[in-house]
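Below: protein 1.
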Amino acid sequence: MERIEHRACFGGWQDVYRHESKVLGCTMTFAVYLPPQAVPGAKLPVLYWLSGLTCTEQNFITKAGAQRYAAEHGVVIVAPDTSPRGDGVADAEGYDLGKGAGFYVNATQAPWAVHYRMYDYVVDELPALVEANFPVGDARAVSGHSMGGHGALVVALRNPGRYRSVSAFSPIVAPSKVPWGEKAFGAYLGEDREAWKAYDATELVKAAPEKLPLLIDQGGDDEFLDDQLRPQLLQAAAVAAGHPLQLRMRPGHDHSYYFIASFIGEHIAHHAAALHGEAREHAGLAPHHHHDGCGH
C-alpha cells in the first residue's frame, strides 16, 4: 500500500492510497480522510462512501465538501473507486457498463467475472485493509450516490450487524426494473433475473434480517428520477415490510454534486450519531450533545 496524495484539510489529512487488490486482481486507488482526531491509538468510526457511474475516488473528495463535517464529528471517510481498473480489465462502450460502472456486485459472467467483484471488495477486502492500517475501530457506516447509493443500501441490507447506519443520495433503488440496472445486471450476472434480486434493495428490504433505518435524500428535479431511480418503489416495499425508511424529496435539486454538497453535513451528522452513540454507550459515557458555537 502506497500513499500517493497527502493534503492538509480542516485540521486533518485528505489522502489517497494505491494498493494491489487480491479480490479484483488489479491495482486500485482509494481515498481516506483522516480528521484531526485520528491520532495514533485512536479507534475512530469509518464512513464508507460509494460513488456513482463514471466516478473515481476523486469526485467525492473534491466536490462534496464532506471533510469539514468529518472533522467536526471525528469520523474517517473512505471513498473507493467505482470499478476495477487497468489494461487487462474488461470494458465496454458507454459510461454505464464496465470501468467506472462496477455496480458493487460480484460478476458471474464472462468476461466480467475475472475482475468485477466490487461487492467483496467493499464489504471485506477494503475494510480489512483500512482497519489494519489506520487509527479506526470496527464501527462502520455506509453511504453513496446513485449507483453508489444502490451499493450502500445493498451492502447494509445484506450484512446485518456490519454497519451502524446507512444513507443514500438519489440511489438506484430497484436496478432490476430500470434501464441502468437491467443493462449492468444482464451483463455482470446473466439473464436469470432471480440472481439479480441479491443486489436489488427493493427486493432485499422485503426480508432484511435487521431493520437498519434507511435514510434517502432525492432531488425533486433529478433528470433521472422517473426512469432510473424511482424511489417510490423502495418506499412501497419498505412500508409493506415494516422497514424504517426516511425518504426526503428535495425540491429544485438535480442529480449533481451540488445536491450532495447541500445535504452531506446532515448525512454525516446522522452517521456520527449512530457511530459515536453506540461506542459511547459501550464506554459507559453519556451521549455527547453538540451545541453550535460552543467552541469545542
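Below: protein 2.
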Amino acid sequence: MSTLPKVAWIGLGIMGSPMSENLVKAGYDVTGHTLEREKLDRLTAAGGTAAASVADAVRDADVIVTMVPASPQVEAVAYGPDGILENAQRGALLIDMSSITPQTSVGLAAAAKEKGIRVLDAPVSGGEAGAIEAVLSIMVGGDQADFDEAKPLFEALGKTIVRCGPHGSGQTVKAANQLIVAVNIQACAEAVVFLEKSGVDLAAALDVLGGGLAGSTVLARKKDNFLRRDFTPGFRIDLHHKDMGIVTDAARTVGAALPVGAVVAQLVASLRAQGDGGLDHSALLRAVERLSGARV
C-alpha cells in the first residue's frame, strides 16, 4: 500500500494530462475527471482511474488538484452541490494550479475554510513541454504548513517551486510571468520579421542571439515555432488573452502602470479577433507579419 496521499485531478487538458501522468509515474494514486472521454481514457492507460463526476473524483481524496482554463471553470468545479467544496472530506488539501484572478483564489480559500478544506493557489509556467518534462515553475500562495505538505507532490511536477506569500500570491506572480512571456514573444516575433526582411540567415541569427544577453527561455522554447511557422498550441492565444486581462486588471487595481504590457495585450487581442485564438502564443509572429505587409 502506498503511503502517498490519494489525489483527485480535475481538468485533463494540454497541461493537466501530462501533469497528472507524472504523478502516476511518481507512485501517486490519481483519480481524474474531465469532460472529454478520450482524456479519461488517456489517464487510465497511464495507470490512473477515471471518475464520472467531480463529486466522485474528490470524495475520498486527500489532495485535490484543479487545472482548468480560467476563473469561471474553477468556480464551476469548486462550488455548488456537485462541486469540490460540498463533496471533499474535511481536512483535504485543494491545490488550484489553474491561472485565474488573485481575487478568485482569495475567495475560494475563504469559502473552503468554512468547509474545513485547505487551499493553495499554485499556477505554473513552462507550457506543455515543461509539463511533459516535469520541469515546471510553480508559484504558490497559501499557508506555509500546507505548502510544506504539498512540496513532495510539487516536486513530481516541477523544478522551481516557491511559496510567494498568502492566498492569491501565486496568481499575482503568474500574472507577472504572463506579462513577461507575452512581451518577450512579441519582441522575438518583431526580431524574426526584421531579420528575415533584412536577408539574414534566420536560423543562424537565432542561434547566436540565444547565446547572448538576448537569450531567454522563451527564445529557446519558441525558436522552432518561428523557424517552421508551426503554431500547434502548447499555450493558446485564447488563454494568453485571458491572462493579459488578468494582469492589466490587477495592475490597475494596485496602481501599477504597464505601458508596454498594455500594447502587447491589444496585439494579443487583435490576433484572437482575426481567428488565431486557437494557435500557440508564438503566433504573435503572424500579427507582426500582417503589420509588415505579409499575407498570412
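The two ends are 56 Å apart (CA to CA).
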